[in-house]
Amino acid sequence: MMLETVREGLSWACLLSGGFFLVAGGIGMLRLPDFYTRMHPAGVIDTMGAGLILLGLMIQAGFSLVTVKLLLIALFLLFTSPTAVHALAKAARHGGLEPLLVNTEENDE
Amino acid sequence: MFSAAIIAIFITMALTLARALLGPTVYDRLLAVNSFGTLTVLLIAVHGFLMGRPAFLDIALVYALISFIGTIAVLKFFEYGDLGPGERVSFDEEQE
């Protein structure tokens, strides 16, 4: 009985903190002034948010095939989302997008 | 518990969608869509747990694969102007 409540509490904590990081990343995506700064919250969403939520689900699922699938999803996200955002940054830099170095008045927000 | 996670995912989806619509540059939109893809993966996984359907995780895994491929394909289109097998003059070669 004791293990059950610990597991329940732990997965609850993971899911909620994952949700918190997701919302924090989402707000960051909206408020940050420049494309290059917005890549950070995208990373927060992909690593912390997704990782904690998948971890919470893994704890919920215990030792089973479901956990292996969840591990595969988490591992895959861990490898591909930094690669995608890196490729995106390279394409943006090549596309001539200048980083916002000083907070000048004429940027859009 | 799962519904709390789903609500958080929906809120983040709304924020990311707002960035996708507002995004001044096209790269902002792609960044927002990329995050939206990851959020959909999470939504499918958590929804599968909520409804007690472990098969949803395969769908979430495939969705993660496809969303990555989609992002890279759009980036290739941005970089080389087309996806076709034509002679690829990338941005660097144009400099010389």
Secondary structure elements and their pairing?
The complex is a heterodimer of chains A (109) and B (96).
Chain A: H1 2-31, H2 35-61, H3 65-94
Chain B: H1 2-22, H2 26-50, H3 56-80, H4 91-95
Question: How would you explain this protein's 3D organization?
Answer:
The complex is a heterodimer of chains A (109) and B (96). Helices cover 80% and strands 0% of the residues of chain A. Chain A contains three helices and no strands. In chain A, helix 1 (2-31) packs antiparallel against helix 2 and helix 2 runs antiparallel to helix 3. Chain A is mainly alpha-helical and 109 residues long. Chain B is an all-alpha fold and 96 residues long. The longest helix of chain B has 25 residues, at 26-50. Chain B is elongated, with a radius of gyration of 17 Å. The model of chain B has no long low-confidence stretch (mean pLDDT 87). At the A-B interface, helix 1, helix 2 and helix 3 of A face helix 1, helix 2 and helix 3 of B.
In short:
Chain A has 109 residues and is an all-alpha fold. In chain A, 80% of the residues lie in helices and 0% in strands.
Tags for this model:
heterodimer; A: mainly alpha; 0% strand; B: mainly alpha; elongated
Helix content of chain B: over 70%
Overall geometric form of chain B = elongated
Number of helices of chain B: 4
Oligomer: heterodimer
The secondary structure category of chain B is: mainly alpha
Radius of gyration of chain A, CA atoms, in whole angstroms: 18 Å
